[in-house]
Amino acid sequence: MNTSSNHTLNADHPLSKGQRLRWLYLNWLNNRHPQAELDSSLQQRIFPAHQHLQPWASIDTLVSPARRLCDLFWHAMPWQNIAAAMGRPVRLLEVGCGSGRYGTLLRDRMGANFGGYTGLDVMPDQAWTALAEDPRFHFHRAGAADVSGFLDGADLVFTQSAIEHFDTDLDFMRKIAKYTAANPRPFLQVHLMPSAGGLRTFMWHGVRNYTPRTISRMTRLFGADTVRILYSLGSGRCNLAHRQRITYPWLLGRPDGRKQDPAGYDQQLRRAIEGDATHPRANEACFYALVLLHRMPANLFDSWHAPCAD
User: Fold this and answer.
1) Phi-psi category of 116—alpha, beta or left, where left has phi over 0 and alpha has psi -120 to 50?
2) Is this structure's pTM higher than 0.90?
3) Who's near 27: CB < 8 A, 6+ residues apart?
4) Residues whose CB falls within 8 Å of the CB of residue 261, separated by 6 or more in sequence, listed in order
5) Which domains does the chain have, with CATH numbers?
6) Each residue of 85-143: pLDDT tens digit?
7) Is 74:106 a contact under the CB 8 Å cutoff?
């Protein structure tokens, strides 16, 4: 088995009407029973975004709810503690980097804890040239299948809204598992991915959505000493804000609701994030962040812990 889903039909490619219906059905089927067949070592937690809103004004106000939550997550990560656990400034490897946007975001956020950034993508981006003027930035035309060749130079490998586009996500994770099993040094993984709620929210996007059940297929690839934490980012209110402002207008051929009323969207999204953080709905995450700690302190992220709620 080389994929966590029941299919590899990829919505990144043009799909016929029949294929689009099949894609929706297969993902609906794959998203069922989200809490079944779990990795017993997988810790499910809630990212308390309402406690980390300080960078709110510095994040693009027109990004989707999921993107805003992801940016808050990256800003809130305990970078000083991570660098201390690594014993040096942290060297980042992003797979599916696109323009390299998260390289600059994390460089600015990490400060002295930033040790360098390598971005991989199957499609080069024109932004790479300017970013590579910083000698700490490196870009390569490569994909998930090539990750083994770049892990030696990294302390943290991450994906941001990318792993759902990998046809064979389990093969990608197997390569990292093989590397971490053979190397005794501290190593960290962070993968941000759409939840089952994304099926109605994002519609045709990549290959799959994720649930704790399908994520467990990836986390079981790692040894017993790997700490596995799955954070829920946002919940039903954020999904609803996305559908009202983005999905429904798109389906109906109407203007994007974010651009029609930027201030109203900004206020709605902030209320949604605050409401979801304090009253999340079980199994209705907006996005997931999977954190895998290899030979690092198990309590590195404990300050974020909050119990799951119905």
Assistant:
1) left
2) yes
3) 5, 199, 208, 209
4) none
5) 42-304 (3.40.50.150)
6) 999 999 999 999 999 999 999 999 999 999 999 999 999 999 999 999 999 999 999 99
7) yes
